[in-house]
Amino acid sequence: MGLPFHQHLFPPVKKIVGEYDMIREGDKIAVGVSGGKDSLATLYTLAHLRYIIPVRYSLHAIAVDMGWPHTDWSRVEEYCQSLAVPFTVVPSQLAEILFDIRKETNPCSLCSKLRHGILNSSAKEAGCNVVALGHTSNDAIETVFLNMFYAGRIACFKPVSILDRSNLRLIRPMLYVSENTTRRVAEKLQLPLIANPCPANGSSKRQAIKEMLERHTQGDKLAHNRLLAAVKGLWKSQSHQLL
């Protein structure tokens, strides 16, 4: 618990969990695990938060396998075992549907909706009442700009949402944590990351927004905090839908 990044990890997560009543007594939380640094850092954080906050809850890690050849989840499974967290891999044919059948040139939004649909259904089947996603503060800021540029509206996903169809509570406990922190967590803990083989990785609209923000905030150490403050104001003033 004494590693340097913890001061940038556990306090902000405890803060947002408390502010938005994210985790409640007896919750069974499905943690969406993609194999990336953000989702695995979320799993690590929620696993350790069980011993930090005075709320009893359980976890179940769920990975939606896209169907890419040779994807190996064995190291992630071993890591989940080390955290005493059950792990389920849900097979799918999303890669084939998106790229071979539909031949999507801009697949990210549809892919996200389909993956989340499978994750939510799997969470219900596992007896979970909450789904946790690993979106960071960077994701929230980028989503505001994505909506402005490509949807013509000022909106962002919320820290807590109720999914009407499944009656699941969707939480994003890492929204006060930066992507830089999750990267440091992944490096220091040597989390079992899985490389993303998606052809759209690195060339999406979100990546373009990320690079634009990096250019315009370079050298300004307070820019990220100001942008996050604006997003927090948005959460308080409006009701939003996920892009």
**How would you name the CATH homologous superfamily?**
HUPs
Low-confidence stretches: none
User: What's the main sheet like?
Assistant: 6 strands, mixed
Beta-strand proportion: 5-15%
Structural class: alpha/beta
CATH class: Alpha Beta
Strand elements, count? 6
Task: Give the strand order, joined by hyphens, for the main sheet.
Answer: 3-2-1-4-6-5
CATH-defined fold name: Rossmann fold
Mean pLDDT: 91
From the N-terminal CA to the C-terminal CA, the straight-line distance is 36 Å
Radius of gyration (CA) equals 17 Å
Residue share in helix: 40-55%
| Order of SSEs | HEHEHEHHEHEEHHH
Total number of helices: 9
Give the count of structural domains: 1
Looking at the overall shape, the CATH architecture is 3-Layer(aba) Sandwich
Q: Give the CA-based shape.
A: globular
Write the layout of secondary structure elements.
Elements: H1 10-19, E1 28-32, H2 37-49, E2 58-65, H3 74-82, E3 87-91, H4 94-101, H5 108-125, E4 130-132, H6 137-150, E5 160-163, E6 168-171, H7 179-189, H8 205-217, H9 223-237
